[in-house]
Amino acid sequence: MARQLSPGKLVIASHNQGKVREIRDLLAPYGIEPVSAGELGLAEPKETGTTFAENALLKAHAAAASGLPALSDDSGLEVKALGGRPGVYTADWAERQWFEGDAGRDWYLAMGKVEGLLAEQGPDVDRSAAFVCTLALAWPDGHEEVFEGRVEGQLTWPPRGAKGFGYDPVFVPLGGTQTFAEIEPAAKHAISHRADAFGKLVAAVFGGQ
Ligand code: IMP
Q1: How far away, in angstroms, is 76 Cα from ligand 1 center?
Q2: Nearest one of 78, 95, 94 to 86, comparing CA atoms
């Protein structure tokens, strides 16, 4: 049985505002007081892992060194026709310095890079993709729990919608017609990879409340 999470402060071990916002929404019903890594002035560890779980654990343990339990999210987009890329490197594909020499992330650049690689495979390319999310919980004594979620969909072009973050404007979930950036946050929370992982976390560490 997983270790239970008691009401009280929990560090959200992410500096990604989109993720922090979604995790706060998902945690709202559980008597948890979320504090972001940014608010605590915690440094962002280097994501040197080669799997989502390795990177999520790295971030959660680094934040749990603050003395509070910590929750991290490592997530990304797996594109079938690209052999699962960008995968764990999803955020890196948005780094401007790779292309233009200055630091910072540009999601249009990242979405365009994926689209460019798909276009190279011709008009009939398989546009299937999945968002995946690994949530890791770590406690100051070193205990850890990991939960994985996934949502399948299709990539569309050009990007549509202004809600959400990251690659949301090009991702249409299976059975839908609108992108994750066009639908309301509550509708995304009902089906997203993050919500899928979060459902497993809730069942395990809040005793299914
Ligand atoms: P990391 O987990 O910090 O390495 O970054 C994962 C990247 O995947 C994010 O910066 C986003 O670009 C992308 N990503 C993860 N979850 C979502 C999502 O819900 N919508 C859109 N993009 C996402």
Answers
A1: 5
A2: 78
